[in-house]
TrEMBL record:
<protein>
    <recommendedName>
        <fullName>AttH domain-containing protein</fullName>
    </recommendedName>
</protein>
<keyword id="KW-0732">Signal</keyword>
<feature type="signal peptide">
    <location>
        <begin position="1"/>
        <end position="23"/>
    </location>
</feature>
<dbReference type="InterPro" id="IPR023374">
    <property type="entry name" value="AttH-like_dom_sf"/>
</dbReference>
Amino acid sequence: MRRRQFALGAAYAAAGTSFMGLAACGGGDSAVPAPAPSPVPTPVPSSAVQIHLPADHYLHRGAPTEWWWHIGTLKAGSRTFGFEINAASFAKDGFAFTQIMLADIANNKHYQRTTPYIPPFMFDPDNWAQNDVNKDWSVRLGDPANKLSALELTHPGSGYTSAPTVVITGGGGALASGIAVHDPATGKIASVVLFGAGLGYTSLPTVTLVGGGGTGATAKALFTYVSMDAGQLHLKKFERKGQKLVFTQAFFIASEPDADSSFLDTARSTHWSCTTP
């Protein structure tokens, strides 16, 4: 679209120059001098170019940080929503994360979900995105085939003198592990982090915090992942399904929506949806 605008601008400029030339044909002193030509920019020599395509679209192994993100606007009838999807590696600090945000313009609300991924089981800094330019570009954090990819603290509890043990049961899988972070200043649990997602989870498991000398801390499992694929970036569409207007964004695939289908949950789902009046 921008190229078309530039082309029109150039056409108008050329037309304007022609018209000024015709006005000057009448003779006299009313002629408008042609504008001085702009200086021609000097090209950057190839030896000094720091951007190399297509390689710089791909993963840079050994890079301390690397980000991919997509932003845009969704419309449902007269309502407008802004979205942003981030997938980032902070290999220098030993973690990665995804962040999914949705802005409900009409209700002046902002929703977001941030999910950390810790190596070696949750995140491989050398292979979480495609680095081979001879293959299709792709990025992924989380596993779409294993319905456990994050833990969320739902209540910090009180009276904890040490970090409790995170116990993960059910869901049809095994070998998942997590850690709880204790805040000694308050005696509460500050956060819970999934250290290993295990294998074979077909539904969300139950998470229990055991020990630590306190009471009341609770957590839950989440199924959320971000997948970006160059071959699907163009697939954007709206579909009407019953009373819902569903937005499909194929480069982003993340968790199943919870039962209440709130915007926070649908912002994590394969299909983003909002109920229209």
